[in-house]
Design a protein that fits this description.
Layout (H helix, E strand, L loop, with lengths): L6 H16 L8 H21 L2 H14 L2 H7 L5 H14 L2 H14 L3 H13 L6 H7 L5 H14 L1 H13 L2 H16 L1
Length: 192
């Protein structure tokens, strides 16, 4: 088990991450050797990123993204610090196909604790008009955090008629107090 904690250790890990590019490219060089070096480098970077904090973790995650290590990045979306989670999600947006990334974003939106990252995830889902996220967007209009509720309401307003059916369904099936709040939000839009 590799334990790293200093920036010198990060340099070592980043060097390991560079190992696949530094491997010999001759035709008789074994491909398995290069692939094994890449896995060892990615595993060491993952180990370091999981134990590091802040900027150092983000740099290691950026290197993992450069290697295209999707499975490793997926493990990092649960990092204890919000900045490394954000960096991992940005890399995954580049590496995963649209549907897989939006499904991950929707899942993280329900689990995320950091308000800034929640707003960012919310904007991303709304901007891409991801239909499976419509019930979540409507529910977030009643979130405890007023910034999240305001952002969700604005996203629902921008989606307009595309989300109207889900909004009507929520108003019909929510508790009376929550349905009144949703109606008040919608009525405020008409007065604008």
């Amino acid at each position: 088990r590799l334990r790293l904690s200093s920036s010198a250790a990060l340099s070592f890990v980043l060097c390991l991450g560079c190992a696949p590019e530094a491997a010999p490219r001759s035709p008789d060089a074994p491909v398995e050797g290069r692939a094994r070096l890449e896995v060892v480098g990615a595993d060491a970077l993952l180990e370091y990123a999981l134990s590091a904090r802040g900027r150092e973790a983000s740099r290691a995650i950026g290197r993992l993204g450069g290697l295209g290590a999707r499975e490793h990045l997926l493990r990092l979306v649960d990092h204890p610090d919000s900045n490394p989670r954000t960096v991992a999600l940005r890399w995954l947006r580049k590496l995963l196909d649209r549907d897989a990334y939006l499904a991950l974003t929707l899942e993280r939106l329900g689990e995320e604790r950091d308000a800034h990252l929640r707003r960012s995830l919310l904007r991303g889902v709304a901007h891409r008009r991801h239909r499976p996220s419509y019930p979540t967007l409507v529910a977030l209009m009643l979130d405890r955090d007023r910034r999240i509720a305001r952002e969700a309401a604005e996203a629902v307003r921008r989606l307009g008629s595309a989300i109207q059916g889900e909004l009507d369904r929520a108003m019909a099936h929510e508790r009376p107090d929550r349905a009144r709040k949703l109606r008040a939000i919608v009525e405020a839009w008409s007065s604008d």
